[in-house]
Hints:
Layout: H1 2-30, H2 32-36, H3 39-54, H4 60-63, H5 68-82, H6 93-99, H7 105-122, H8 126-147
Helix pairs in contact: 3-5, 3-7, 5-8, 6-8, 7-8
Amino acid sequence: xxxxxxxxxxxxxxxxxxxxxxxxxxxxxxxxxxxxxxxxxxxxxxxxxxxxxxxxxxxxxxxxxxxxxxxxxxxxxxxxxxxxxxxxxxxxxxxxxxxxxxxxxxxxxxxxxxxxxxxxxxxxxxxxxxxxxxxxxxxxxxxxxxxx
Length: 148
């Protein structure tokens, strides 16, 4: 009987701690946009990624004729939304999933390389870099694919 009560109490403590950590993580993700420096920094990140990617021969097949200046604000709004900003995302999850088929694995990797380099130019905070990378990198190929 005593072990059952202790087991239930321990389970409640674990659940409570888990919910507290989950809420803390949600607050961290919600503030990534602010931690990045807001819209100015996100806009700089999106334009830097697209400008450098457009010059990459690995991406010439998909970005060669794309107007990156017109695409950049849409990418910035998508990033803003995904990082917890109040921007309206131009793309749905379905559009991002469909867009991922427009890039092959090497093109997606190349885009990720440019994203990592651009991220290093806009923030030096390793925690912010990690959070932004985890939020954006897995979907970046699909986002760019959907925008082209």
